[in-house]
Amino acid sequence: MSKGRVTLPSEKNYFKETMRIAEKWGADAIRDSDGTKLDDELKKSPFKIYNAYFPTRAHNDFITQHMEECPEMYLMSERVMATNEEVEIAFMREYYPEQLKVDYLHNPKEYWEVIDRTTGSVVSTEEWSLDSEKNSITIYKAKKWHEYTVSFLAYIIWDPVEMYNHLTNDWGDKEHEIPFDVLQPHSYQFVLETMANWLKENPDVDVVRFTTFFYQFSLVFNQYGKEKFVDWFGYGASVSPLMLEKFKEAKGYALRAEDFIDEGYYNSSFRIPTQNYLDYIDFVQQFVTKTVRKLTDMVHSSGKEAMMFLGDQWLGTEPYGNYFKETGLDAVVGSVGDGTTLRMISDIPHVKYTEGRFLPYFFPDTFFAGNEENIVNEARMNWVQARRAILRSPIERMGYGGYLTLADKFPAFIETVAEITEEFRQIHKEIKGSRAKTKLNVALLNHWGALRSWQAFTVAHALYCKEAYSYYGVLEALSGMDVEVSFISFEDVLTDGIDQTIDVIINAGAMNTAFSGGEIWKNERLISCLNEWIYNGGGFIGVGEPSGCEHQGRTFQMAHALGVDKEVGYSLSTDKYFKTAEKTHFITEGMMKFDFGEVVNSVYSLSENTEILEFSNDEVHISANEFGNGRTIYLAGLPFSFENARLLMRSLYFAARKEKEMLEGYSTNIFCEVSVFPEVKRYCVINNSATTQETTVTFGEQESERLTLNAYEIVWRDLL
Description:
GO terms for molecular function: 1,4-alpha-oligoglucan phosphorylase activity. By secondary structure, the protein is an alpha/beta fold. The protein is built from 19 helices and 36 strands. The chain folds into 3 domains: 6-58 and 183-232 and 279-431, Glycosidases (TIM Barrel); 441-662, Class I glutamine amidotransferase (GATase) domain (Rossmann fold, 3-Layer(aba) Sandwich); 665-718, Golgi alpha-mannosidase II (Immunoglobulin-like). The strands form 9 sheets. An 8-stranded parallel barrel has the order 1-2-3-13-16-17-18-19. It has a 7-stranded mixed β-sheet with strand order 21-20-22-23-30-29-28. Strands 4, 5, 7, 8, 9 and 12 form a 6-stranded antiparallel β-sheet that branches. Helix 10 crosses helix 11 (372-390), helix 11 packs parallel to helix 13 (411-431) and helix 14 (469-479) packs across helix 18 (642-655).
């Protein structure tokens, strides 16, 4: 058993047990968790000590004296149908009063909006009145049979993450932690002074783990205390009259409530972002970055490291944004849900190291009597998915979070994690800081580009969504693949053209979303640029409804290059003759079954030149097409599975015309993958399945090696 690279959670009155598990897992760092404290004996031990730090919560003695400085957000009432000219809307009816309190301090007639949702028009402030006792407004000249909503400002009076933890762990009468807004004058001064005092009072802490900084991602609960709305990227909880005022000063124009309400979509990352919203994100990032830097400078002056948890109040610190480098952070730690979220953490630039917090989290909703088998399976599968990505882009450290007293009740879990942590260290020992060989450059094209690297198709962190998993699988497959992955925006293409080092561009997503593109596909320069690039030898893969935008008789605006289009009911009178699938093809070689997830219907071939590779239910699900010197591929959907990871791999190499290169470090078994590390002249083969697998590893013209791998095994070999 080696030691290092592992962070272990602990809590008070658990010193001896912590030492025992730390020895077993080879931990070299100890951390606290939300709701726990560390023993003084632990703090004075040789372990590196992480201490969670909440800059804008857990100080009720302060904020209760300044409740006007709680963070705020715009919310929309339920939609009410007008059956008379006079309509009353109880706008707080669907919200949790213990989390939210209406802002009556700032003039509602100035900041709120009542909107006729049938027409989209704003109701004049003279035509509605407010009853603050009832939290309702009354419209006096409503149009009958029209829908109306109220967009209003509310204070967040219970920190949403602490609220979630409180309800999950049944903390009972524990005082609710009230958040505060660092933009406000008293809060700003308090945050700086409290940080300075805390650093003096905690000399034994080595790493200040900011959890996180100032503004919570959008997490709103309904009247029953259940999650109502969540957007891991939502900037809604950073809005306040003061923020709006400062934005106007900086940008030269004013925002309105609807810029945040967004017809009730709240600027979900699936929405095509408006320029106003992008400007607001940029403004908040600049403010947050400058304020974070003040805190990290203080941490460094005290001789400690500054680490950020990628979650909770992380808005404005987006690690792939323009300003992240200026935060001065030493490290980022994030929750690892799968390979995609692992890469989201491990690829972060401008920090000394990255760390992953693995699952399961040691909370009672998972660690309860009789659930050990599921706990062990979750830990194992979490590691297997993350391991693919680690071999491509390694995090430097790993760890777990929650209550060690819970985890310690499950010996099989303790043993499993011991195996995982040892394997993690072994990977680092083998690769010696080198990176795995990549053979293709692949770019994902959408509206968000590099800002949301490894974050497309995400509603909440690594959680399943029926409408998105068919596209999220593209990221998950790529996270462990032997290709270099970048993220580009439509604006990048329009401004700078296409980087000629890119081999394949992927456009994936549902029509009219930020990920497939929507109206941007009516831009002739975008279409021309991509068509020219493909025609001259580029590879293009469309998944779902790529370039989907109804325009000039096409649904897919890249239909000519793709060789397929989608029927939306307008051309049913036009016969579609081309329905014969190829019996064999490089892309589908060895594939026994296909899974397209929430399959896109009614895609058809445009001509006999399109190679149909899967045709069923009278529609195309996989196709390939030659377009000049370039190649294009269409896939109806790609939920993650190891079969689909192989399908995407073969599609990429075919689109790039690099079929032979694919065989340089290739496993014939879809459940096994190869990573080659030329600098240390080593390669490894992993078995991603729970059963024994046999595979042949090929290196082009070199001799192939036949291997048998046990369940989840990783084997290392010398390169010839």
